[in-house]
Amino acid sequence: MTAELVRGQNHPLPHTRLEIRVSAGHPVLAAVTLVDEGGRVPGPGAVAHPGATALPGVEVPRQAATAHRLAVDLEAVEEAVHRVCVLLALPVGVEGPPRFGASAAPVVTVTAPDGTGIADYTLTGLDRESAVVALELYRRQGAWKVRAVGQGYEGGLAALLADQGLDRPAELAGSILEAVAQGLARSVAAPPPRLPEADRVRQPAPAAPAAPGGPIDYTHRGRRPAPDAAVPPRPEQPPAAPAHPVPVAGDATGWSMDERLYNQVWGMFEDLARTAAAYRSACQFAESRLDQELDRVLSDPRARIGGAGDAARAAARAKHDELTARAQEALDRDLAQLTAESEVVEPALPAAYARWDSPVWQAYRVPMEAPMAVRLGDLHLPERTGLRIPFLARLPLARGLWVDSGRGHGEAAALLDEAELRTLALDTAVALVARLVAVYPTDGFRVRVIDPAGAGAGAFAPLVESGVLAGPPAAGAAGVSACLAQLTERVDLLQMALRAGAADDLPPGVDTAEHLLVVHDFPHGFDDRAVNQLRYLADEGPEVGLHLLMVADRADAAAYGPVLDPLWRSLTRLTPVPEDHLANPWVGHAWTYEPPRVPQGSAVLRQVLSQVADARRQWGA
């Protein structure tokens, strides 16, 4: 449970690798100071800020924003560091209040790397301050703790740094604010006015994109070089702000590029959710206001007829149109930013996060370690169906997967017959299995398949022929029973060893690698005992590395009634055709899920499976 801190309260930290999340109602800059045993910041080199984002064990964002994620690894900070202070300050030259007391209080959350909350602190009580020490992580008797500080400074960032004992604090504060002022905000500015032909300056042609399979250039083609620090701009000609933001792949916190891209993708997801929620809310407000004003006109007998009534109704509709037009303008601006970011991020994604049509698969090699996450498909909202956000699931999977071969409620499913839906569902499952096999090391993942009637033999052929399965698909009632009994025994042994703290004392032959059980055509071939074993594996398997992938139509198992309801609820439902069934309770959106499609006629799936099989034979896995 996340601890809710008040000013001055401390809380133990169960992890040394942390993420600090900042949420504010207006743009703020985030920085970190490393304080020695004497309570002083030794020098500018002990401050991580937008102009110098990384120090040993600490990394902060490069820009001012309403939301931040700071990465902290307390084991990596130097021994001389006794306190890690997290600072927030209001930037200069950015739309927003001049003091913290003029808007909602910022919230700072300390989380584990997987997002599990450790401590929350809402910075209440601020008024005229424009800089604040939000919280500090400090050593105490060989362990680390977090303390809610909330110390604000009316003198701004310079006063804060001076209070921490830094020499020439105004100089460093000025350089930090200048770095933010010249940085690139995450919102997209309106395009500059079009100049007459005679006044235009010819721009150099953009560099050609990298060849398929070649290295990815992580810098945006439109990024401008930094100005020469030795030649400051003349006062009468201040440097112009960039005409448009330049998105960069990996523009997020993290200790590796994969982690940065993962965080950036989920940041795009959150930005799209907020943007759509703001647009829908604005449109609803405009409609509600129009209804109220029309009701007032109708409630006044004198205004029901004649020119006054017509003028009042016209004014109400004009105001409605103005509000919706402003909402649409803001939506278009934000969607343009996200689209530009997506166009830069998508080509830079590694194989685990990439689409099947990405050139990165042409240079695929079996990894030496598992990635943070895997792509299960794409998500989009009706406001911009062409803007697709990768649907990334953390590894190891916390929940099993269910590819629904039934009708569902989507329009796309209604256009297909039952046989086509079942074929697409099985193809989707095989694509997911191939991706999971491809992103794990050679000895880190096993796949078992249950296909009681052999109806999926054609779809499973790439998996069988490549040799990546742990054994042939289990067929018939006897095969189903034997496979489930073997996996149940494995889960029992691993759970007993885990709970007894004797994971190193397992009997010889017990495979501790991650396992995926693919079940096709459920409940055909399952008796009551097999159904109970399947439910047990779905509930208890993930804890010891056994994951379930069901390919089934829930209607086929209707005879079991509510007995199977917990099974379906425990699985993440995916569909073989686009369907808006993934709910986001945070903002009330229903996201449309699109399955991971292998391009028609492409041999990429078989090529990847062949490389995995060759690597396993080479390593004797």
How is the secondary structure organized here?
Blueprint: E1 3-5, E2 10-12, E3 17-35, E4 47-48, E5 54-55, E6 58-59, E7 65-73, E8 83-89, E9 107-111, E10 117-122, E11 131-140, E12 143-153, H1 156-163, H2 169-182, H3 257-299, H4 306-348, E13 373-380, E14 389-394, E15 400-404, H5 411-414, H6 418-439, E16 445-450, H7 457-466, H8 476-500, E17 514-522, H9 528-540, E18 546-552, H10 565-569, E19 571-574, E20 579-584, E21 589-594, H11 604-619
Helix pairs in contact: 1-2, 3-4, 6-11, 8-9
Keyphrases for this structure?
11 helices; twelve-stranded mixed beta sheet; 621 residues; five-stranded parallel beta sheet
Intertermini distance: 41 Å
Count of discrete alpha- or pi-helical segments spanning 4 or more residues: 11
- Which ranges are low-confidence, i.e. pLDDT below 50, for 5 or more consecutive residues? 184-243
Helix vs. strand class: alpha+beta
* Biggest beta sheet attributes: 12 strands, mixed
Question: Judging from the principal axes of the Cα atoms, what is the shape?
Answer: globular
Helical percentage: 25-40%
